[in-house]
Structure formats: C-alpha cells, structure tokens
Amino acid sequence: MGIREKVKKILIVDDDIDLLEQNKLLLENKGFNVLTCESGEEAWMLYQNENPDAVVADLIMEHHDSGFVLCHKIKKTEHGKVIPVFILTSATYDTGFKFSASTFEERDWINCDAILNKPVSVEEIIKKLEKYFSI
Amino acid sequence: MENINPKILVVDDEKGLRLGTQRLLENEGYFADTAENGTEGIVKALSEDFDIVIIDLRMPDIEGIEVLKKIKENKPNTVCFIATAYASYETAVESTRIGAYGYIPKPFTPEELIYQVEKAFTHRKLLLETERLTREKEERLLEIASEKSRLNTIIKSLKSGVLVINLTGETAYFNSSVLQLLNINELNLGEYVLDKLPNKINEMVKKYLKLEEDIHKSYSVQIEIYPGELYIDAYCSPVPNPDNSLAGVVVIIRNITEYKRIELVKNQFVSMVAHELKTPVAAVLGFLKIILDPNLNVSEEKKTDFLIRSSHRLEDLLHMVNDLLDISRLELKNKEKELIEVNLLDCINNVIEFLHNEAEKRNININFENNIKDPVITANPSEISRILTNILSNAIKYNKESGNVTINLGINSNYYFIKIADTGIGLRPAEKEKLFQEFYRVKSEKTRGISGTGLGLSIVKRLVESYAGKIEVESEIDIGTAFTIFLPIN
C-alpha cells in the first residue's frame, strides 16, 4: 500500500472466532484497518454504518448461505458496487451442495468478486485486495 | 411265454368250438374267456383288457367284422383274429384292413392255433411297448414345454432386464424390464436393436459381435439413464455355442438407483466430515503460524491465549473423531451388542453424578422426579448412558446461567419415557427441524463459545432408534427445550 493512500478499512465476517481473530491480526499487521463480526446479519449492519473498502465473508455462518445473502445485499448498494466482496468457503466439494455460480441468474445473484477456498492464506487475501485497490 | 396267463377272449356262437378252444388255450397256460355272440364279445372285450381276441366271422346277432371294428376302435392295442369256415380272400382283406392281426381258417389244428396265438402275443407286447414309449415321449414333450414356459415366466417377472442379442445385432429374447430400464418405447423380437441401446452398451455388444473381445470374459458398465433418477448397471456376457463359437450376447440390466443414492449420501457425509475436521485444524494451524512468525508482534499473553484456544480446538476435534467412530459403529448393522438388564433409575442417577461438576460450574439445578419402581430394560448400559449424557449435557450447556433441568421418568403405554427439560435458550422451529442432522449446530450470539461436535443428537437418535424407541423434542425460544426419550418396555 502506498504511504499517501488512506488506510483501507476491511470488514471480515466469520463465525469461527479463532479464524476471525487470526485474520484480523494478520491483516492489521499488513496495515489494514480491520472490522470484524460473526454473522451475516451483524455484518450487514456494520457495513451500512462503516462503508468498508472491502468485505471478506465466510459463506456458511448462521445459515448455509449467509455469505451469499450478505454479498447480494451489499452489491445492491451504490457503495457495494465499487468495492470488492470476497466469499470464503471450505465447502467447494461438488457433491450435495452447489457453491459456484454457473448460470447467468446465479452470477447475477451471487455477484461477489471472488470465491476463495478455506483455509485461505492471508497473503492470498492481501494479493486480491491490492489488485482491486491498485485499479 | 414271458407273461403269466396272457388273456384271450374267444367269441363264437358255436358252443363246442368255443369251449374246445377255451380248454385248449387253458391247457397251454393262457387265461381264456368266452362270449357266445357278438354283443357279449364287444361288452367283454371293451370292459376287460384282453391281450388277444379270436372272433368268429359269422354270428347270428352281429357280424364278426363289426365286432372287430368296435374293438379296434376302442382298444387299438388288442390283437384280434378273425376265425371262420367261410374263408374267402375278400373277408381276409377286409378284416386286416379294419385291423385284424390275422386270419384263422376253420377248422384249425391245436398247433395252428397255438402258433398263431404265440405270434399274436409277441405282436401285442410290441404294441404295448410302442404305446408306453409314445406316452413317455408325450409326457417329456409336455414337461419340456412347461419347463420352457416356467423359465419364461421367471425371466419375464425378473426386475432385472434380460436382453439376448444374436450375431446380427437383433433381439433374440428380452423381458419387459429391458424397456423400462433402458427407456425404450418399443422393441420387437428379430428387430435390429443395437441403435436403440445406450452408447456404452452398444459399444460393448459390438466388440463381442465383431469378435474383438474374448468370449470368455464379461463386462459391466454403469449408466445414467435419467440424470439423478435412474441409474443402471449393464452386465454383458457372450453366449457361446456348444462348439465355443459365439451365438450372441446376453445383457443383464439392473436398477442401481438406490445404490447410487446411498453412494451420494455417503460422499456428502464424507465431504461434510472432511469440512468439519478441516476447520479446527485450520484454526490451530493459524494460531501456530502466528505464534511462530517472528515478524508479527504478538504479546506473550496473547500467545498463551492462542495456545489455550488451540488446545480447546484440538480437544473438540478429538471429541468429534470419537463421535464419528461411534456413528460408524452404529452403522454396522450386524454389530453384536452385549445386552443386559439395565435399571434406568440407576442409569439416570449415574449420569447426573457424572455431569454434576458441569452443572455446578454454571450454577444449574438438576431435579429428578420419578414415581416408578425398577424401570428395567434389556440394553447395553453404556449406550443408554451415552443417550442420557448427551441430552443432559446439552440441557446444561444450552441453559441459562443458574437455570434448572428437570428430569422425569415414567411410563407411557408400552414405553418408559425420560423427559429432560431445560430453562435454556430454546429453539426456533427451523432449528428444531435440523436438530438431528449430522454436524448441525444452532448458531447464535447465545451459543457462541459453547463447544460441541454437532454429532451428539445424531448419535442419540441413532441409538434410541436402535432400541426401537423414539425421541421427541418440544421447545420454545428463550423459554427452554425438553427432550423426551421413549424406550420400549421389553
């Protein structure tokens, strides 16, 4: 991150408090301002109040699609359209549930900027974030 | 003579000749009977089974030819002679045409008669043997026909499809299951069938027909006919001729939809398990990396906190592995359980004792109300304890601080029931529905920090059901939850 730039505010959402705290610590160490919360609903409130520069949300929280629902709501807002929203999931297995957007309707509905596999390294998140912030 | 007393009937209106012939035959060891006219002759010949009948040609009531006709019509295997003094070429021809074996001109000498009778009896034996063989053959043919129709019925009623294809790719045989399992609308015998078959079967059959495949090998292939709805297994075997050349190919088609469904459920379960195991491992690994990273400025206090939390995650992980092992044990259908008499009262008291410390930590009061004596069931005591421990520990964990747990033991028709009610956070209707699913855990602000594997209730349900029991749950959000376990009274 350039020194002249304003410190970026990242909202991370995960119902696993250990992973949440680890990511917070690591992102803060990289110079981000990190907001955390543990549910999609909470995240939605926080998002509206804080207007973060990026959102990284776990997929399965209070509901199996909490991450998608949150992303959908965010992307409906004006601010949401210009910031990256990443979904984290370890449920990328292809049996049973579907976690990828393959049809237009699905892509339209789940228009997050990336779906990342858990456990995700913080370096990977940072690389993705910097790509967005540098544009 | 081989047979003792061959039976002979002498039909003659001339008494002297009749009785003389009878005596003569009896002296030779034959059984001889007589009839004094044609009518009596017919009655006797038809009602009894004579080997030989000697018929006088001229009788006052009926002509000998008519008698012969009647007998031959009804008993074709009776050997008949025509005897007459009025021998003529015409009557001889006529009588043999109707079926007489021979012609005895009167008067005859005893030697002539015996010679003719012996010859006739040999003929009679041949006739009887022929009749026996004919009957046997007919019976065999009938047997084969019924065997064939039985086999046919069996194959037709098979749920599996049976399709026999000849060397030119035409149907030689099929049952109706073939149509259903391969989703073919119409199929006729002798019709070229290869184009109607799914590609994979078509290819396999063609390989045999082109003799590219060893005719002593069989192959099977699994095919999806309707995605998600109908899966089949097609087993192709060559049908060899007696000389080992290829006669055709038989395809046996089985419906394996249910098997595939179970496989899918199993795969989903394995994926879920992998996911559930991965999360705590990732958390611990994350903590360790942070602790070990020299570039991160983490206080000693924080590091200790991370280590404690890691150790909690690993403990939970261990619990989960144990629960999974329990589930897998429960899935083994032919497991042998050691069943003894278990007193539910003792069991409940032991479990309360076991969880006493847990309850005390949260200042939870456990009341146990019981009004039955010696509630004994035949069960595995550790399984019953497991059921009660899982439910009671949930009642403690998900209770309010300083809450109550009430346990009731009683009888409800054919069941003992154990009701464990808490004054805890309660469940929403949607949460209640998913409660017994593997890995389902209620997630909310209030359940934060409560550890668990998400398998406890799933195990309880499996255990209770293994005793032909049932489990019911009532709950109201913020008021509390009550689980009632019903176990059949032996």
Account of the protein in words:
The complex is a heterodimer of chains A (135) and B (490). Chain A is of the alpha/beta class. Chain A has a single domain, classed as 3-Layer(aba) Sandwich (Rossmann fold). Helices cover 40% and strands 18% of the residues of chain A. Chain A is built from five helices and five strands; from the N terminus they run βαβαβαβαβα. Chain A is globular. Chain B has 490 residues and is α/β, with parallel strands linked by helices. Chain B folds into four domains: 127 residues, Rossmann fold; 97 residues, Beta-Lactamase; 72 residues, Orthogonal Bundle (Helix Hairpins), CATH 1.10.287; 149 residues, Heat Shock Protein 90, CATH 3.30.565. In chain B, 47% of the residues lie in helices and 23% in strands. Chain B contains 14 helices and 17 strands. In chain B, the strands form four sheets. Chain B has a five-stranded parallel sheet with strand order 2-1-3-4-5, with helices on both faces. Chain B has a five-stranded antiparallel sheet with strand order 7-6-10-9-8, sandwiched between helices. In chain B, strands 12-14-15-17-16 form a five-stranded mixed sheet, covered by helices on one side. The mean pLDDT of chain B is 89.
